[in-house]
Amino acid sequence: AGPRSGRAGGGDRNGEHTGYLRMRGLPFSATKKEVCGFFRDYCPVEDSVSFTYRSDGRATGEGYVGFGSVEDSRGAMTLHRNMMGSRYIELFISSKEEHQRSVARAGGH
């Protein structure tokens, strides 16, 4: 996808913000607290942080986070490609529906 489409490597970065973001490139050991620390200036909701897992239970390095407002999620996009530990985190616009599907798939994780 080219720069005009607003889709870069599997996600939307220029569409309508909903208060939720998808993260890619997370350290496999990332915790909810670490994700909230990464977004500390943008009012992340700790209970909203979820991670995705492979069928064998291993982390995929992707996750979702909700924010207190649409403005906070929009502001948090400025952290796209910032570092968490030794990894850079890619950020994409998500939705409440996508977030809820992720939480349902994660089950007991």
Describe the structure.
This protein is of the alpha+beta class and 109 residues long. The protein has helices at residues 32-38, 70-76, 96-106; strands spanning 20-24, 44-53, 59-67, 82-84, 87-93. Strands 2-3-1-5-4 form a five-stranded antiparallel β-sheet, sandwiched between helices. A hairpin with a 5-residue loop joins strand 2 (44-53) and strand 3. It is globular and about 35 Å long. The chain starts with 19 loop residues before the first strand and ends with a helix.
Overall residue-averaged pLDDT value = 88
Biggest sheet descriptor? 5 strands, antiparallel
Q: Count of helical segments? A: 3
Distance between the termini: 33 Å
Instruction: Give the strand line-up of the largest sheet.
Output: 2-3-1-5-4
- Class by alpha and beta content: alpha+beta
Number of strands: 5
* Topology pattern, helix = H, strand = E: EHEEHEEH
Low-confidence stretches: 1-8
Rg, Cα atoms, Å: 13 Å
Helical residue percent band: 10-25%
Shape: globular
Report the portion of residues in β strands.
Answer: 25-35%
